[in-house]
Amino acid sequence: MPIAERLISLSIGFRAARQVDMLFNEAVFHFIQAKHPQQWTKDEVAVWLRWCGEEYSIEAVPADKFDMNGKALCLLKRSDFMERVPKNGDLLYNALNKLVQKNSGAYDSSTTSGTPSLSYQNVTPSPSAFQIPQQFSSPDQTNGGLVLLPRSNAQTTAVYTTKVKPYVPILPHPANHITKQEILPVTTVPGILSPAPSPSDTGSGSDVDSCTEYDDRLACRNPMQPSQLNYMNPLRPTMATGSELVPFLRSKESDCRLLWEFIYQLLQNPYYKEYVCWEKLDDFVFRINNPTGLAQLWGHQKNRTNMTYEKLSRALRYYYRMNIIKKVSGKRLTYKFMQPPANIQKGQRGAKPHSRSHLLTTCKDEEVDDYDSEMRSDDTISSELSQTSIEGKPIKIEIPDSHDLSRRDSRDKLTRSMSYPGMRHLSSACHSTDMSDQPFDFTMTTLKRKEKSVDDSVSSAITCSQLSFPLPMDLNSPVSTNS
DNA sequence: GACCCGGAAGGGAA
DNA sequence: GTTCCCTTCCGGGT
């Protein structure tokens, strides 16, 4: 039995269970992407129609309306689709068009709104084509959906929004902070959802149109209610107020606490392509189109009204060392996820500026490399290293009067500023046995060093920005600082 | 001037 | 109390 028929019969049996139905859709989804539409058989056309029905939650399309193979299907014009399926012909046409463009390897965004030539080129589809990042997908999430964004020519473009944990940025009333120039310009058409922003309206003048992979990959899913769209798109105006913006709700789901996650969420929503868009989705390369606007979105998300691109980019730079995001050299405002965002582990965090920066001040290069390898091994010290522990051994250090250790900030500063070769975190490696008395007692609690550097380490100095004192050979001996 | 870089110090939340 | 993830500031570079 051909795979298409098998899938159809499977789907009939599966329909009882929504969960399984979703699996079916996924299976068909992958099946469809593997072939150019012009290569589809009649059955495969039927499968695609069925898939569209499921994915976009549209009325089932009678199979006899498209009783043809893929080649014939690709010859149909938009009007033909509209004639056959007045209600959803436009959507089907767009969906097919995108598949054709993707498989042809020559996507021209202008065809989205025009009459595309569904020409077939014999190219092998990219393996990652139509693979939607799955990081935030969950079977019970249903609040994504099809967003119909009227373009300037009043035609519609289907935009994928489901399977992605809905990003609900926290944005204040438009009167605050975001200037109109930086916000997506809007012209509201009663009864129609908010328009996609025109690239020409962007303050940066960036070529947003080139962000075509975005729409291309993020194909249509389930319809979404206007209220949901309002929820999803913080810059979407209300119907009645024209260019005014809706104040946005705080939501339990707006927990984009991490910058990379926030950016990734924006990338999932074509509504934000004025701000950030995929440059090359296959390689997770993205481009910031409106640095100021993006910074302000991020600022609103974090309740930091003074956020700037300068600061945001500093945060991005902390991702470099953790191999989460890197700059695409030579291309301004262009960065790259170094791995699929879905693969970024919880433990793989973006910034360890204190621990690392202080190691850099006192460690040799090789020790820094070791540090990196340790950090990459999920905060455990690599087992391949021969280690010596001086865990539990107290070090008495006399702290000068200038350091008021009864103050927490002073202790923090001291702890943070201290560094020791081969040690990952002094702040975690030491704790005070008594904060109030001097001399100040640090007890090494987790300090482990590599065997080969024991001697060096013992004779090394513990340093901090204000202090410099030798680590005693006898770890129990008090050490006076001379700063 | 805009963007980019990384050090340094500190804030805030979990 | 500790740790993480930035935020803020800075000097310098392209």
Features:
483 residues; alpha+beta; DNA polymerase, domain 1; Arc Repressor Mutant, subunit A; 3 domains; four-stranded antiparallel beta sheet; four-stranded mixed beta sheet; 11% strand; disordered C terminus; DNA-binding
Structural class: alpha+beta
For the biggest sheet, the summary is:
4 strands, antiparallel
| Quaternary form | single chain
Q: CATH superfamily assignment of the largest domain?
A: Winged helix-like DNA-binding domain superfamily/Winged helix DNA-binding domain
The CATH class of the largest domain is identified as: Mainly Alpha
CATH topology-level name of the largest domain: Arc Repressor Mutant, subunit A
Known CATH architecture of the largest domain: Orthogonal Bundle
Whole-number total of structural domains = 3
What's the helix-strand series?
Answer: HHHHHHEEHHHEEHHEEHHEEHHEEEHEEE
User: Which stretches are low in confidence, meaning pLDDT under 50 for 5 or more residues running?
Assistant: 7-23, 105-207, 212-254, 350-483
Task: Determine Rg (CA atoms, Å).
Answer: 29 Å
Family: Belongs to the ETS family.
Domain PNT: 19-103
GO molecular function: DNA-binding transcription factor activity, RNA polymerase II-specific; sequence-specific DNA binding
InterPro entries: Ets_dom, ETS_fam, Pointed_dom, SAM/pointed_sf, WH-like_DNA-bd_sf, WH_DNA-bd_sf
What does this entry look like structurally?
It is found in: Nucleus. The structure is a single chain. With 483 residues, the protein is an alpha+beta fold. It has three domains: 3-112, Transcription Factor, Ets-1 (DNA polymerase, domain 1, Orthogonal Bundle), CATH 1.10.150.50; 147-343, Arc Repressor Mutant, subunit A; 355-480, no CATH class. The chain is 33% helix and 11% strand. It is built from 16 helices and 14 strands. It has a four-stranded antiparallel sheet with strand order 3-4-6-5. Strands 9-10-8-14 form a four-stranded mixed sheet. A two-stranded antiparallel sheet has the order 1-2. A hairpin with a 5-residue loop joins strand 9 and strand 10 (440-444). The protein is elongated, with a radius of gyration of 29 Å.
